[in-house]
Structure formats: structure tokens, C-alpha cells
From TrEMBL:
Name the record gives this protein: Dephospho-CoA kinase
Catalytic activity: 3'-dephospho-CoA + ATP = ADP + CoA + H(+)
Compartment(s) of residence: Cytoplasm
Functional summary from the UniProt entry: Catalyzes the phosphorylation of the 3'-hydroxyl group of dephosphocoenzyme A to form coenzyme A.
Top EC class for this record: transferase
Keyword Nucleotidyltransferase: no
Organism: Microbacterium yannicii
KW Nucleus (keyword) present: no
Family: Belongs to the CoaE family.
Record keywords, A-Z: ATP-binding, Coenzyme A biosynthesis, Cytoplasm, Kinase, Nucleotide-binding, Transferase
Top-level taxonomic group: Bacteria
Amino acid sequence: MPLVALTGGIASGKSTIARRLAERGAVVVDADQLVREVQAPGTPVLAAIADAFGVRMLRPDGSLDRAALGTQVFGDPAAIARLNAIVHPAVRAESARRFAAAFAADPDAVVVYDVPLLVEARVDDPWQLIVVAHAPADVRAERLVALRGLSPADAAARIASQVPDDARLRIADVVIDTAGSLDETIRQADQLWDRLDEHVARRAARS
């Protein structure tokens, strides 16, 4: 019943790997989706965000205005820390519940936690394997411009706001090089799946 953390910087191809592992049989828990769920209208987290950052963070229908919140906290370490202190405990609790439910349903399940902020928030959790999707910053910047419509300056700022690549690579048990073609990334994801037990055993032996 391995519990695998999958992380990577913005536009690193992490979601492509997660989708492929799901196709191969993994139970994928998406941290970004959990964040959206714990911030849904009527939740204590959303109420705390409104208290901390103002009701202008809410849309007329009562949902979170993510763009407004992002603008409010971007580039402000104190504001980001305040937001993380509200959101991260709720996400941690909900992810633990999802992991437990998956293993209760199938004790042999492979559970993959697709989590962008692993280094920042969850690196010390009891993962049995840490997988890092990696492409150089310039490649990821090109993807943000071409695929998401960001300006080069905005793309560079988004990348710079995250932890450096070497911080992620330092904690990796397995690195999937996503700088090449989609087929190459999927091939590496398949190799990871096929050799998962071996990778888990190797990490355990180092512990």
C-alpha cells in the first residue's frame, strides 16, 4: 500500500504524470482540488479567508474570488504565510482522510498525492516514495506563455515565486524528465509504475 508524493514546479508536466499513473491503476488525490473543496462556500476555511483578507475576496455568489486573493497575496510572504496557516491544516486533514479511505477500500492500492507545494508544506510526511516532475525553468516559462497565455514577465514571476528546482530535486527518490516529448514523459511514468515496488524498497533501505 505505497503512498507516493508527486510534485513539480508550475508547468512541469506533473499533471500528465498523474493522469498516466491513474490510467495504470493508481488512486490519485489532487491537492489543488482539495484546496478548492476546503475553500467552498459555507466552509470554515472560506470564512477565515474573508476574515483575514476582507469580504472583497468573495464573489457576489459567496464563492472565493481566486484572482482577487492571488493578487492580494502574490509577492507578500507575510500574506502567503497567513493564507497557508488557514488553508494547509484543512488540506492536510482532508488528504489524510482520502488516503485512509483509499487504503480501506483496497489495502493494496497505490495512492499518489499530486501536490505542488510538497517542499513548502508536506516534505516530512511519511511518504514511501517522492517523485519529482522536472523540466528546466526556461522550458516551463515557454509552456506558460504558449499554453496558458502568460506574458514572459508573468511566467518568470510565477516560476520565481516557487521554491528553486534544486530544492525539489534534493528530496526526490525518482525524477521524471519532462523536458522532452509527451510520449517520453508517459514512457517514464510507465517505467515508474512498472518498477514501483523496487523504488519503494530502495527508499526504505536508505531510511
